[in-house]
Amino acid sequence: MDLLVVGGSGLLGREIVTQAGPGAAATYHSSPPDAPDRHRLDLRDRHRLDIRDRAAVAELVDRLQPRLIINAAYRQHDWAITADGAMHVAAAAARTGARLVHVSSDAIFSGNATTYDERSTPDPTTPYGAAKAAAELAIRGLLPDAVIARTSLIIGEGEVAHVRNVRQRVLFTDDIRLPIHVADLAAALLELGRGQHTGIHHVAGADAISRYELARLICRRDGLDETTLHPGLRAETGPPGPLDLRLDCAWTQERLSVRLRGAREFLARPDPAVAPPVPDAASVPRPSHPR
Q1: If you count DSSP H runs as helices and E runs as strands, how many of each does the chain have, helices first?
Q2: Is residue 289 a contact partner of residue 194, using CB atoms and an 8 Å limit?
Q3: Structural domains in the chain?
Q4: Minimal CA–CA distance to 3: which of 36, 29, 35?
Q5: 70 pairs with which residues across the strands?
Q6: Which residues of 113-131 are buried (b: 16+ CB within 10 A; e: fewer)?
Q7: Of the ranges 163-177, 206-220, 271-285, which is most confident?
Q8: Where would a tag sit more exposed on the chain, N or C end, judged by fewer CB atoms within 10 A?
Q9: Per-residue pLDDT tens for 35-68?
């Protein structure tokens, strides 16, 4: 098997499966994953799995023998899934010789330094950040050649729907992140996994923007009334956690062919007067496969 996506029913997991195409399998905890429109998983490629169960993780990986595992599973308030589960996946990958790409988070940093590159030391201030940092530590010990891909706020249709639903609530102007489009992140993770990359990589968008500006961009693109948005300060109302936190992705971007776009670009309203180019069939890139 080419690829196993752990956490394949989530926003990111579904996109990875979609882009990977045939040869991919995915796990789910409660809802079976699907990748509509472009690629749908066969029933035999969908596997129910609780990654808190180390024996179950080991059995599945032993049975499927994937060449590449991408772990996109997490739950913010569940240490056993975010930390212990990640360790179980890494242990199974190490035993079978699979390559591993683990999706980590900018939450491992406090935000005190504002900008962090791949050499920065984790200093989490939240339980979720601590769980992600613990997962990284376990993975580096079990599988030194694994890829640990730290990312930021992931934007897809789910996040757009979320903004539509919370327009009457406060959106923070001092909560700064580097949002990344889910399609860009999935493509980058596949490229990191299918190449010879190892170690820590920062994979986030090019624009540092606030939650409030993000909502305004979505409203403008979708023709919504942005005057219904209510700005506020997270520093005054909480919840606790980093405020202005930016991942320096320059080193990783130099090594990727995937371009990590900024939110101001991927949320821009398309110009109806400009028709999208029609690619020549011979120029369409073909998917590569892990060695």
Answers
A1: 11, 15
A2: yes
A3: 3-269 (3.40.50.720)
A4: 35
A5: 5, 101
A6: eeebebebebbbebebbbb
A7: 206-220
A8: C
A9: 444 455 555 688 999 999 999 999 999 999 999 9
- Tell me, rounded to whole angstroms, the distance of Cα 136 from its chain centroid: 15
**Sign of the alpha-carbon dihedral angle for 17, 19, 22, 24:** negative
What value, to the nearest 5°, has the Cα angle with vertex 104 and ends 103 and 109? 165
Does this model's pTM top 0.85?
yes
pLDDT at 163: 62
C-alpha to C-alpha distance for 71 and 82, rounded to whole angstroms:
10
Nearest residue to 201 (alpha-carbon basis) of 209, 210, 192: 192
Q: Is the pLDDT of residue 283 over 60?
A: no
CB 106 within 8 A of CB 158: no
Closest CA to 135 of 98, 73, 86: 86
Q: Please list the residues that pair with 103 across neighbouring strands.
A: 149
